[in-house]
């Protein structure tokens, strides 16, 4: 039996329904075929603004998005601080705990 090039082709994995590309990422190396959601920037107006181009400044922002890595079944939630290029990655269960903690604190603040 002789294999053809088609037999050696790494199959595309279907994208997550929320992937902003949605095409299986055919032009990317199989190890790099992560699905990415929209980035959902949240302005951080209490932080120094960031230079954007020669005459413009933007509020610092944290991007909130999902990534499903090529080897993973479940996505992770990521927070990326654009100002210092730092990021935090958490499981969806951890993201739910963070959401619940923030919600509880906001409810406490709103009652005060
Ligand atoms: Zn994708």
Key features?
112 residues; 21% helix; flat; 5-stranded antiparallel beta sheet; binds zinc ion; alpha+beta; two-stranded antiparallel ribbon; 2 helices
Could you characterize the architecture of this molecule?
- With 112 residues, the protein is an alpha+beta fold.
- Helices cover 21% and strands 25% of the residues.
- It is built from 2 helices and 7 strands, in the order H-E-E-E-E-E-E-E-H.
- It has helices spanning 5-8, 92-111; strands at 35-36, 41-43, 50-51, 57-58, 61-68, 76-81, 86-90.
- Strands 1, 2, 5, 6 and 7 form a 5-stranded antiparallel β-sheet that branches. A two-stranded antiparallel sheet has the order 3-4.
- It is flat.
- The structure holds zinc ion (ZN).
- Zinc ion binds next to loops.
């Amino acid at each position: 039996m002789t294999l053809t090039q088609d037999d050696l082709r790494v199959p595309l994995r279907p994208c997550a329904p929320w992937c902003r590309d949605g095409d299986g990422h055919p032009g990317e190396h199989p190890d790099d075929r992560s699905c990415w959601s929209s980035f959902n920037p949240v302005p951080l107006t209490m932080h120094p603004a960031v230079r954007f181009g020669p005459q413009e400044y933007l509020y610092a922002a944290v991007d909130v998005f999902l990534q499903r890595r090529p080897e993973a079944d479940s996505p992770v939630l990521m927070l990326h601080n654009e100002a210092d290029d730092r990021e935090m990655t958490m499981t969806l269960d951890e993201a739910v705990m963070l959401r619940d903690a923030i919600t509880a604190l906001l409810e406490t603040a709103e009652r005060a």
